[in-house]
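Could you please consider the sequence and fold appended to this message?
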Amino acid sequence: MRARASSAGIIGAATLSGYTLRWSKKGVDGSGKCTIAVSPREETAVHGVLYRLSATEKAELDVVEGLGTGYDEAWVTVETPAGCREATTYVAAPSHVDDTIAPYTWYRDLVVAGAVEAGMPDDYVRRLATAGTQQDPDTNREARNRAAIPCGRSPDRALI
């Protein structure tokens, strides 16, 4: 997050109950990216990190993340150790959802490494790590993105 918004200050862990994480947002590279969706199962939740951003950097992040061109913005109520808070998040626009696509392996590994680094629950990290993937046909893009994975962690090493 700090690479995209240097003012990003971590507020803390957050849980969005009643939602599930999906890999079904169509990325411009042809792979699945993360989104959230209401879950039919009440016990389902998405874990994440809540950040505080300056208004200027929020506007810049909106452009980088594709607000209005693949993602919509949604207000949600998340649970934090300090109580419930309102937060804004990105949700795949209906026109950009495809449940038949999978993330590239490097993208899944990056999400898993972030979950490990943030101290998310082990069972949640394991579920993320078992997401089906596809190989990125662009080996240069894969190498660039693998370099961004903290400490070179892969899902297998993250869970040992």
User: Anything to note?
Assistant: The helical segments are 55-65, 105-117, 122-129, 139-146, 155-158. The chain is about 30% helix and 30% strand.
